[in-house]
Specification:
alpha/beta, 2 domains, 10-stranded mixed sheet, 3-stranded mixed sheet
């Protein structure tokens, strides 16, 4: 073969390899660049969606959010089908043990607090409810004013939290209903009196447009867990100071094991901008964003 052709062939191969490597490096995921999929607990989807929108405008990153029940998310993390998730609790000791057996060490980052709330049809006269009455009803007792409980999903974090408080596993049965989403719960309660819906408060503070008309026909209830605080409304202040009995912490779980978007998004959530988004949403940030106050030594007269 002519030496010129050999040299030309080698040069072209080297050039193709260089271009391929350069393209590979450009596509490589970093903490602020690339693509990643996150599973998000359906009860807290709105706040994570807000964070995603701002994160993507600030960085060359694309986050695909998928709303799932808490049980689905945990199972997906354990079988390695997803590496990043946002859920309203820490991983349990048993779950961490499974990860450890696979040489996987999840990073758990708390970034906010929200609450599970009870809602009722706006036509009700009394917007106060006792957590003890809810637990009695879950155990099969008749409770005045409660015709039924409506949950978002039998595998959801809201069901898990109420099950822990009641000391029994909540399952669909007579007068205890489960749908698939918080939207369906709100819609059903708005159309039926005497039912108590159990939803994540974020859906009520930041509802999608198609949900607002149903929310307008419902009422958030104040909850009493003990005599110390009495009936407590799930306001931002009451969630933050621990008075509201069904408050919970939100975590991003990162099982990537390298410096990827899981780490970058977690840093964003816990950073200044992410915490401002939390504060504005009505939820409680883990740290309150700083405020810059400018003190003037001289007052300017605009009329001069």
């Amino acid at each position: 073969m002519n030496k010129k052709y050999v040299v030309l062939t080698v040069f072209l191969l080297a050039l193709l390899i260089f271009i391929a490597c350069k393209k590979s490096n450009n596509d490589e995921e970093t903490i602020i660049k690339g693509k990643a999929t996150l599973y998000v607990d359906e009860s807290i989807f709105p706040i994570v969606e807000d964070q995603q929108a701002v994160f993507e405008t600030q960085y060359d990153a694309k986050l695909t959010l998928k709303a799932k029940s808490e049980t689905e998310i945990i199972n997906s993390l354990l079988n390695d089908s997803v590496k990043i998730a946002v859920i309203p609790r820490k991983l349990s000791a048993q779950e961490l043990k499974v990860f450890s057996s696979k040489k996987i060490f999840p990073k758990e980052t708390i970034f906010a607090s929200d609450a599970v709330v009870f809602i009722a049809n706006k036509a009700i006269n009394d917007s106060l409810i006792s957590l003890l009455d809810i637990i009695k009803f879950m155990k099969g007792e008749n409770v005045n004013g409660i015709k039924g409980l409506v949950f978002d999903n039998p595998n959801s974090s809201t069901v898990r939290l109420l099950s822990e408080r009641a000391g029994i596993k909540v399952t669909p049965q007579k007068n205890i209903f489960s749908f698939a989403t918080n939207l369906e719960v709100v819609k059903y309660v708005s159309e039926n009196q005497g039912l108590i819906g159990v939803v994540g408060v974020d859906w009520l503070y930041q509802p999608p447009l198609d949900m607002q008309s149903f929310i307008d026909k419902t009422r958030i209830m104040s909850v009493k867990a003990d005599e110390k605080f009495g009936f407590v409304y799930p306001s931002q202040e009451n969630i933050g100071n621990g008075k509201y009995p069904l408050a919970r912490d939100l975590y991003i779980i990162n099982c990537q094991g390298y410096s990827g978007l899981g780490m970058g998004f977690a840093s964003f959530l816990g950073g200044e901008r992410g915490q401002r988004i939390i504060l504005k949403s009505g939820l409680v940030p883990v740290r309150y964003p700083s405020r810059n106050i400018v003190v003037r030594n001289k007052i300017l007269n605009d009329n001069n």
